[in-house]
Amino acid sequence: MNRSRRSSALACAIGRQRAEADLTLPYTVRSTAMDKISLCPACSACPEVAIDGDIVRIGEEGNVVSLKRDEWNVLVDVIKSGKVGKL
């Protein structure tokens, strides 16, 4: 692992520890065009959920899945129903 990846990984680990301790997730950044929810406030290399109109993108640079409104709503319903939970 190169130096910048190690630094990023360390920042992510620290950010996750802070998030778990503070219980302040999700971190939401609002803009006029899109809502973004970072899964790690310590760096910009971690996955995020970006809502842009009727499309929801989940992931990180080079590894993103896009869900249409109906697909996103099914995912939310499944989570809320308890069929899928924390690992």
Helix/strand layout:
Elements: H1 3-22, E1 27-30, E2 35-38, E3 48-52, E4 55-60, E5 63-68, H2 69-81
Task: Give an overview of the whole structure.
It is built from two helices and five strands, in the order H-E-E-E-E-E-H. The chain has 87 residues and is an alpha+beta fold. It has one domain (3-81). Strands 1-2-3-4-5 form a five-stranded antiparallel sheet. A hairpin with a 2-residue loop joins strand 3 and strand 4. It is globular, with a radius of gyration of 15 Å. The relative contact order is 0.11.
How many independent structural domains? Answer: 1
Mean pLDDT: 75
Helix content: 25-40%
**Strand arrangement across the biggest beta sheet:** 1-2-3-4-5
Structural class: alpha+beta
Main beta-sheet strand count, sense and barrel state: 5 strands, antiparallel
Described by its quaternary structure, the protein is single chain
Span between termini? 27 Å
| Radius of gyration from the alpha-carbon trace, in angstroms | 15 Å
For the structure shown, list the relevant keywords.
single chain, alpha+beta, 2 helices, 5 strands, globular, disordered N terminus
Structure summary:
This protein is of the alpha+beta class and 87 residues long. 38% of the residues lie in helices and 29% in strands. The chain is globular and about 30 Å long.
